[in-house]
Amino acid sequence: MKILIVEDEEAIRGFVRINLKRGGMEVTEAEDGETALALALAASPPFDVALLDLMLPGISGFEVCEQLRQQFPRMGIIMLTAKSQEEDKIRGLELGADDYVQKPFSPGELVARLNALKRRMQPLGEEPALGGDGAAAGAPAAEAGALPAPAAHGGSVASAGGAAQPVPQRPGELSSGAFRLSSAERRLWKDGVEIVLTPTEWTLVKLLMEREGEGLSRDDILNAVWGRHYVGDLKIVDVNIRRIRQKIEIQPSDPQHIETLWGYGYRWKRSDEQ
Question: Model pTM?
Answer without folding.
Answer: 0.73
